[in-house]
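Input/output pair, single chain:
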Amino acid sequence: MTENAIYNYEPSHRTRRKLAGDTPGPIKVADQLPTETTIQRFNAWLAVKVTNGVGTMWCAYAFAALALVSLPSAISSHSPIVLVSWISQTFLQLVLLSVIIVGQNLLATAADKRSEATFKDADAVLHEAVMIQEHLLAQDGVLADLVGRLSRLEASSAS
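Output:
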């Protein structure tokens, strides 16, 4: 920085870390998984495997087919309570479970992409802000030089 800087730029600690290359990227799902014990790692692994298996449209189709097996029995009972129970407890719960997981996975993927884009945008804005600070510092040097010349010119014309 020049001695005659009009403004003394002090970057924030996050900016200094970012410029030094000491900041991680956006947080990923894998970063959130437990790593402390073998049991925690196994439970997380199993939960992800089951979720990935159940969270497919193929699983939703299989659950729908499985639920349809008991439909004739529910219809032949001639009981509205049994039919409503079949719809709500068998069909909807089985099928919607997979469909909701598929939808959540799609939404999470979109959110991850938005997060990554936001991270890149913030990085670009930081770069631009640093360039602006450097430009302003250069202008401060030019202004200080002009003020010095003007002062010398006024002093020489006063004599």
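The mean pLDDT is 87. Helices lie at 13-19, 29-32, 38-54, 57-69, 71-76, 80-158.
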